[in-house]
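Might you be able to consider the sequence and fold that I enclose below?
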Amino acid sequence: MKKRLTVGVVTAECYRDYIAEMICGVIAQSNCADCNVIVLAARNNFQEPISPHIEHEADIFKLIELPDLDGFIYDQNAFAHFGIQKKLDTLLKRTGKPVMMLDAREHPFFENTVSHDPETFAMLIEHMIQVHGHKKIYCLTGTKGTSQAEDRLQAYFSVMKRHGYYYDDTYYTYGDFWRNAPVEYAQRLISGELAMPEAVVCANDIMADSLIAALSKAGINVPSDIAVTGFDGYLDDPQSDVSLTTFPKSCYQLGIDAFRRLYTFMTGRNCRRAPSRNAQIQIGHSCGCVPVQRQTEKSRRERHLVSRYKEWFYHSEVLFELIHTNTLYDLLYLIASRIYLVCHWRDFRIFLTDRYLRSLEPHTHFPAHADFCEVLWTDRAGKSGGIKDAPMKQSDIISYLTNDPEHPSAYYLSLLHMDERQFGIAALSFGRLPCCYQSEYCTLISYLCLAFEQLEEKVKLGANGRDAVRNTENPQLYNKLVQIREEMQQNPEIDWSVQELCRRTHVSRSYLQRTYKRCFGKSIFEELIDFRIMKAKELLFSEDLTFTKAAELCGYSSYAHFAKQFKVHEGITLSEFREKLKSKP
């Protein structure tokens, strides 16, 4: 079968509405083109000051250099820090693969897809004229020379000419798409340098919001004294109490257009366009209208569903539960049972580094080539791939996630770390649904990182306790138990009775069991079960071996007991485990 192309999306804070819309457009279009999508997203945008922990969020972007990514959609505007932008530029250029930027300035090496929206900006000016009857309308556009600022300014000229309304060079001003230029512009209006207009149309919401706040401080009321509109719907932190009339820019369409152009660069062919989403003016108080709630039944249900999941998440005790687990198995089992708190999720995986796994269980044996291990896979049906099931290289993770022969895959990858200490990678999928996670998922990942760190600290403390047992209480017994444990691990099928172990160590039954658990963190029989299941998983690689024979070779007198214990330990049946082995490349 021909290998699907895989597109990497490089962004940050993808739970923000406009970034989520863009990613949803990319995924919708990737489904039409039968391509995979891997979203490499930092949970922060690296705004100053950058803490050591946030700085290491950028380590997720080292995956850019993996060979299975065939091209990239790069949202440079999502990163507030120029240093991070420069590092990403270097990484992406080094791959030698096609890169498509989004609404960015011209770049010497990468292509750029710009949202062309003069028609929708013109609709806002028409609204001020036809609905409110304004004639003296000013325009505060964006940064001079940028395509977005010039397009919107030309739309302003076109509408004013069409209606025969007067304007000159005092009627329009270039801004900065940010909060500084609108404050200066407000001072020009307040001081009388510019005659007061009836309305000002701004080239984005941030400038409109800052202008309203600055005018209000001077006692100029919006909209009764002057009407104001924004544009693009990108306002996250309003500074004024007046709701904006705006036109939410279609980032969904931008994602579609960027993917289609990238696909053409990668293949030399065009792909069928995904359906667009309808957009319309969003009415607020700033133009003088009374806001009207326009929601379809579908969007109303979606908002209610998201709100309900938020409530479930913040009323859960998931942080408390995670940090109080004492073993990796308990931690993974708990996160598998709590991932339902993410709305619309379909598939969740955790890959831990071999360094972290060895810090928890020093006697774990990995293949020489492996530096990562998939320790958890779960889906909405409650299926699980067990623990320590798939050792692999980091370079194989993306190909592993995108090996579905029937459908294209889309995964969001998040780094699991605490400062510079990396635990692994979490991978979340919504199946074929063009969907993005809410901010609560970022909080859940932070909780999980904290739980991994706490667990490692607990294991270290336990190891120190075992060292104390070895060095002070009974070092001779400790050495004998280490030898016995190694023999159990190598030959778990033997009938290891406590009575025989008491005879070999010359201590009482209760003292032996208590000391063993203090030294190794588990009881004798818990360890024996672990060693037998470990051997069973090795034996099951052979398809010629029956389950009954495997049970016998692992020391079980009853196949039923073996099958039951395997399912309790691994979370799947023997047959499901073998089928999973067959499906792996």
Notes: The two ends are 13 Å apart (CA to CA). Residues 118-229 form a domain with the Rossmann fold fold (CATH 3.40.50.2300). The longest strand covers residues 410-418.
